[in-house]
Each structure stands twice: as C-alpha cells, then as structure tokens.
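User: Just a sanity check before I run the rest of the batch. Below are the structure tokens for the first item. I only need the designed sequence back.
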C-alpha cells in the first residue's frame, strides 16, 4: 500500500496520481490534503513519513509545489529516504542505489504525463543492495549520530 500526501500546491497532481494508481489496481492511502485550500506541507510530509518509516505503508509519494518542502520535511523522520525526482533516470537510480522509500514531486514543476512515468519507474524498480546497502547503512548511522 502506497502512502500519498500533498499540500494545496500538489493537490491536483496527487489526484492524477490517485487516478493512475486506481487504473493500475495499486492500493494507496491518501493522507491529505483533501482540498485546494492553502495548508502547510510539513504536516502531510510528516504523516506520510511516519506511515512509511513505521512499515504501515511500503512506500510513499509526496507532492507540493516544488517537491522541495515535502522532501526536506519527510527526511526529518527517522528511516525516511525521500527523493525529489523530476526525471526518469533519477527515479530509477534513487530506487536502485539509495533504496528511496518516498518519491517527492513538484506539482508546479512538471507535467502530469512525465510525473506518472516517474511514479511508474519509482514503484517498479528494486534496490540493488550490495555496495549500495553499505552506503544506505551509513545514512542510517548519520541519523543515529545526529
Ligand atoms: C506553497 O505555496 C509552496 O510553498 C509549497 O507547495 C512547496 O512548494 C514548498 O516547498
């Protein structure tokens, strides 16, 4: 089950992502926001971050205007590796090399078609492990030490 969240800046793209996941038969939980009214992106980033870090949801997608605010916020939750990806190569490699567990997108930055392609790649690419697991473990140690 995918955890989804956005602020007002990402609300429309989140709706498009939900439609796409419905078409693909992929289950998700929408943590809000639920309208275009102005709201605070860190609130939704924390909700999705906690849902993913706890294991309640296997991965997450967060959308704000740029994708930057939600990625910064979600990465404050221990165990979250949120990656802001606006190209297909980054989406593939953040799964293969960083084992990213949350994809961040900017609803005001990229078009819907491109965003959905990035979502598809993110959800269908496996972590390679090996030397990359060692590096991700070092990221976890940074969290422990700071
Ligand atoms: C909201 O205006 C905007 O600041 C937010 O969606 C996001 O882009 C923050 O990083």
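Assistant: Here's the designed sequence for the first item:
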């Amino acid at each position: 089950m995918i955890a989804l969240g956005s602020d007002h800046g990402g609300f429309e793209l989140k709706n498009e992502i939900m439609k796409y996941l419905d078409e693909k038969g992929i289950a998700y939980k929408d943590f809000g926001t639920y309208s275009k009214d102005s709201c605070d992106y860190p609130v939704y980033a924390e909700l999705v971050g906690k849902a993913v870090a706890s294991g309640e949801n296997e991965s997450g997608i967060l959308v704000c205007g740029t994708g930057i605010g939600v990625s910064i916020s979600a990465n404050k939750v221990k165990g979250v590796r949120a990656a802001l990806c606006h190209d297909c190569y980054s989406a593939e490699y953040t799964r293969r090399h960083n084992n990213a567990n949350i994809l961040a997108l900017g609803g005001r930055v990229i078009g819907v078609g491109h965003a959905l392609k990035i979502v598809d790649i993110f959800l269908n690419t496996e972590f390679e492990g090996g030397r990359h697991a060692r590096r991700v473990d070092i990221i976890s140690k940074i969290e422990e030490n700071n």
